[in-house]
Design goal:
It is a single chain. The protein is an alpha/beta fold and 324 residues long. A hairpin with a 2-residue loop joins strand 1 and strand 2. Helix 1 crosses helix 12, helix 7 packs across helix 8 and helix 12 packs across helix 13. It is globular.
């Protein structure tokens, strides 16, 4: 039976409203972490005769690579633009380690006099690698040339930069599941010498390049943020990349192929609530559809002081409710 868009959006809105208490519990759980991953992506939102470019922000708590016992979770927020005031508001009461890219809007979070305390910046080596990988992508360049497309010349310097960064990632792969202290000791022995050598090499290469060169910009991306990129040598809790946030955001561009755009700011806010719930369920290996069906059937009669029992990592399915 065909249902009007307004009926469907009303149902989504009612579900988001009913599930808001769980969204708030997940938000508190994410912001209780000592380290979180942050990122954002574009989302079209309906405007008069066109669509505007709005934003969905995500903050991910995931300590599993460190053998942490706390459950992972993803927190989404919506905003109409990408001004720095949004992450400042999202993280107003939080302090800790923020794994993120070099977005300037995070800058005020890192100030020493920030209240309740400064946020420590941790650089993302995956972003740094991506910038030089594009200049050393041998297979991609060959494909373009085979199709008769124009392609940039492969840079041997970029290729060496990728290889140097890959050595750091290889060390981290062997540290999966180890404690922060074990990671710190291994990094001091194996990664610290590579980082010292990388700094000297990047400085020497940048000195040979013009400022308009893409490779010079890639070198400066790391050198200008050297303190953020070396933070992992002083703190075993820090990851090398921000891939946890990028994986959590993957659902948004995939979903845009189906729903195209948010109908309004309220629709974007509802999307943030539902993405938070669905992605958190996925991170905890819980079927989002079964979980939401069960929770929506039970939440109205569930004691408010026991709402945490409905969170994905504590949820126990009710087969009768799911079947209904």
């Amino acid at each position: 039976m065909p249902l009007s868009v307004s009926t469907l959006t009303d149902q989504v809105g009612a579900a988001a409203f009913a599930l808001m208490p769980l969204y708030k519990l997940i938000e508190a759980h994410v912001l209780a972490a000592e380290r979180i991953h942050g990122d954002d992506t574009v989302v079209p939102v309906m405007a008069k005769g066109k669509t505007d470019t709005a934003r969905l922000w995500v903050y991910v708590r995931d300590d599993r690579p460190f053998g942490g016992a706390d459950p992972p979770a993803a927190l989404f927020h919506y905003s109409r633009d990408r001004r720095g005031e949004h992450p400042r508001r999202h993280l107003a009461a939080w302090q800790g380690i923020l794994q993120a890219d070099a977005y300037g809007g995070y800058g005020e979070l890192y100030l020493a006099d920030r209240q309740p305390g400064p946020v420590r910046e941790a650089g993302c080596f995956a972003h740094a690698r991506r910038k030089v990988f594009e200049l050393a992508d041998i297979e991609g360049t060959a494909r373009k040339r085979s199709r008769g497309n124009k392609s940039a010349t492969i840079s041997p310097v970029a290729l060496e930069a990728v290889q140097r960064l890959d050595r750091l990632f290889a060390i981290e792969r062997d540290l999966g599941g180890r404690s922060a202290a074990e990671r710190l000791a291994a990094r001091a022995e194996h990664s610290a010498p590579l980082m010292a050598d990388l700094h000297s090499w990047l400085t020497a290469q940048a000195a040979k390049l013009s400022r308009g060169n893409d490779l010079w910009k890639a070198c400066q991306y790391v050198l200008k943020r050297w303190q953020a990129f070396t933070a992992f040598l002083d703190d075993g809790r820090i990851c090398l990349s921000n891939n946890a946030a990028e994986r959590a955001l993957r659902c948004v561009p995939l979903g845009r192929k189906a729903w195209l755009f948010a109908g309004s700011d309220r629709g974007g806010e509802r999307a943030a609530v539902l993405y938070t719930l669905i992605q958190t369920a996925r991170l905890n290996d819980v079927d989002p559809q079964a979980w939401l069906a069960d929770v929506l059937a039970r939440i109205a009669d569930h004691p408010s002081q026991k709402l945490d029992e409905l969170l994905p990592w504590r949820w126990r399915p009710d087969p009768v409710a799911i079947a209904a």
